[in-house]
Specification:
- By secondary structure, the chain is an alpha/beta fold.
- It has a domain at about 320-395: Beta-grasp domain (Ubiquitin-like (UB roll)).
- It has 13 helices and 12 strands.
- It has helices at about 15-20, 50-55, 130-150, 150-160, 165-175, 180-190, 205-215, 230-240, 250-265, 285-300, 305-320, 355-360, 360-365, and strands at about 1-5, 40-45, 65, 70-75, 105-110, 220-225, 245-250, 320-325, 345-350, 370-375, 380, 390-395.
- Strands 1, 2, 3, 4, 5, 6 and 7 form a 7-stranded mixed beta sheet that branches. A 5-stranded mixed beta sheet has the order 9-8-12-10-11.
- Bound molecules: guanosine-5'-triphosphate and magnesium ion (MG).
């Protein structure tokens, strides 16, 4: 599972990335600060099943704090995209290949309207964030359409002369982009194209198909960033204007400050929370105390910095992921070393339990016999769709 952070230059993509990963990607108030992609790991929250038993867990890949498990999600932050990138403007769009394996995109926009399409500072309110959501969608579309165009004629002849199915041709073209056959079917239904004669497809047809593929396979949500500088009503108005694309007001900068302060122990703050505590106010410099007061006011106004909520809505609502806890002993919920609920990971809702077994280990998938639900102790057949939050033992041939 990987989420890509996209948007025009200088809107706060790397700040959002740093806030979510606590890494140190370069951030600066000018365009094209990021050139090479930044990759890191963020986390999303789910209740930890250990609370149902009262036995503490022994977390391996996903930390547990106060009954909440923090499950890892990969993130990639890429260079800023400008209108006309597909024709080579700005840094072009070659770098979008860094997003090939992303399952969905968070588009960061400057909700204050103080950054133009190239990422230069302009007077606040002079830019319309809705416009950049529009053209960024176009640039993503041209990128995907461009992937078909390579050797298009030769490939198309195969479809028309050798009877290769158009689905197969598309699947082959799109390997590496993580687009499932099911999404290809949906896109082919949505895009008005002649499936039998791809040689007649125009550039517009290809773009229509690319857009349908992106709509079906790569959900996009918007971060209305820098919300620390706009009234709440403005954010609501912007979000309404972007529907059906979901938008959340965020302050990446506030989240980053709070997480860094929490790391040094200056504040007690858990991502997504509506408040924080200062354990020892005497440690604060006057400047820090003022900055924290501002952050407190921001949280009061917005309910949270929006950052954690945005990522979780992308993962759970848009990408429909659920969390599974694989164990080797379905009674004690332990692995072979006696660790309780050691791992937690994300899979798409409805994933058959055998596919979950493959995710845990290829051998478990290949030699799968059955799965056992750790709560009901019922045996589950290979095609049984995994339940959200499942504690699951996989039984396999040795
Ligand atoms: N007020 C405010 N400023 C922010 C926020 N997030 C980022 N910024 C500022 O916006 C500027 C750009 O931030 P970056 O994270 O470097 O932006 P970027 O989108 O990665 O930029 P490129 O890599 O150049 O495309 C920096 O000066 C940040 O401090 C925010 O939530 N509020
Ligand atoms: Mg950047």
């Amino acid at each position: 599972m990987e989420v890509g952070i996209v948007g025009k230059p200088n809107v706060g993509k790397s700040t959002l990335f740093n806030a979510l990963t606590l890494l140190d990607a370069t951030m600066a108030p000018y365009p094209f600060t990021t050139v090479k992609p930044n990759r890191g790991v963020a986390t999303v929250r789910v209740p930890c099943p250990h609370t149902e038993r009262g036995t503490p867990c022994t977390p391996g890949n996903a930390a547990c704090r106060n009954g909440t498990r923090w499950v890892p999600v990969s993130l990639v932050d890429v260079a800023g995209l400008v209108p006309g990138a597909h024709e080579g403007r700005g840094l072009g769009n070659q770098f979008l290949n860094d997003l090939s394996v992303a399952d969905g995109f968070i588009q960061v926009v400057d909700a204050t309207g103080a950054t133009d399409a190239e990422g230069s500072a302009v007077p606040p309110g002079s830019q319309d964030p809705a416009a950049e959501v529009g053209w960024l969608g176009d640039e993503l579309t041209y990128w995907v359409a461009g992937l078909f165009e390579r050797e298009f004629d030769r490939q198309v002849r195969k479809v028309e002369l050798e009877g290769v199915k158009v689905e197969e041709f598309l699947e082959r073209r799109l390997t590496g982009l993580k687009i499932t056959p099911a999404s290809i079917q949906i896109a082919l239904r949505e895009a008005p194209i002649d499936r039998v004669h791809p040689s007649t497809w125009t550039t517009e047809d290809l773009r229509g198909l690319a857009r349908a593929l992106l709509d079906a396979a790569k959900p996009r949500s918007v971060a209305l960033n820098k919300c620390d500088r706009i009234p709440t009503e403005r954010a609501a108005e912007l979000a309404d204007g972007l529907a059906p694309i979901p938008a959340v007001a965020t302050s990446a900068e506030a989240e980053l400050t709070l997480r860094r302060a929490a790391k040094t122990g200056l504040v007690l703050y858990s991502p997504g929370d509506a408040e924080f505590h200062v354990p020892d106010p005497s440690r604060l410099s006057p400047a820090q105390a003022r900055a924290l007061e501002e952050l407190r006011a921001l949280l009061r106004r917005w309910g949270s910095t929006g950052v954690q909520r945005l990522l979780e809505s992308m993962v759970f609502e848009r990408l429909r992921q659920v969390v599974v806890f694989p164990v080797e002993d379905e009674t004690h919920w332990t692995d072979s070393k006696g660790r309780v609920l050691p791992d937690a990971f994300l899979v798409p809702a409805g994933t058959p339990v055998r596919a979950v077994a493959y995710r845990v280990h290829t051998d478990l998938g290949e030699h799968f016999i059955r799965a056992i639900d750790g709560r009901t102790h019922r045996a589950l057949a290979a095609d049984h769709p995994v339940d959200p939050g499942s504690v699951l033992r996989i039984v396999a041939r040795r």
